[in-house]
Amino acid sequence: MKVKKVLVSQPKPSSEKSPYYEIAEKYGVQIEFRPFIKVEGLTAKEFRQSKISISEFTAIIFTARTAIDHFFRLCEEMRVNIPDTMKYFCTTESIALYLQKYIVYRKRKIFHGNTGKLDDLLPFLLKHSKEKFLYAVSDVNKEDSNVLDKHNINYTKAVMYRTVSNDFGPEEPFDYDMLLFFSPSGIASLLKNFPEFKQDDIRIGCFGSTTAQAVRDAGLRLDMEAPSVKAPSMTAALDLYLKEDAKKN
Question: Global pTM?
């Protein structure tokens, strides 16, 4: 069966130049964007239950822009004053630059890695090892913090937001030939929304090894996986898959 309708479990691209639109036109397929999960921030009341006092920390570790948004939101709601001496450690430059939305960007107090991994931040963390670090995370945080433990970094994980299922409405059609997932939470949401889900001819594609494992753990068939040498992105993988699918059909 030829793929005619694809569900991408992410928000609709803000740019009309997205590769997804080119792929849709190239292969004559319908591509729809519909997140299976959404992010909700913890309320100030919920965060206080963790007994974490933000004002006690002298530095913060961020691995996502979402974490930055919810950190500053909670600070505002709880009337926590962030001192100018606070240091910020981000796993990528883009995350570090995002801080400009909330603070004046000064290189002497903002540090960033390049790979998106905590290991890349280690030289900066060790150089400032006397700081007391707050590590802002989500409830499904998968980042391996063993590197922090191994080097005796003084840190505390603080859950500031959660990932929840973005439920389908009873009148919302589910007539897709292919589903694309980007996180294990997306697979969990699929099964929550459709407990009796039968894959049959529906193709499933995913990005990342942890998502691929979640597909297999759910007893589903994985038809397409990215990244790979030939397809470093989800769009590149989808392009290759639809090209082969067109040949077969």
Answer: 0.71
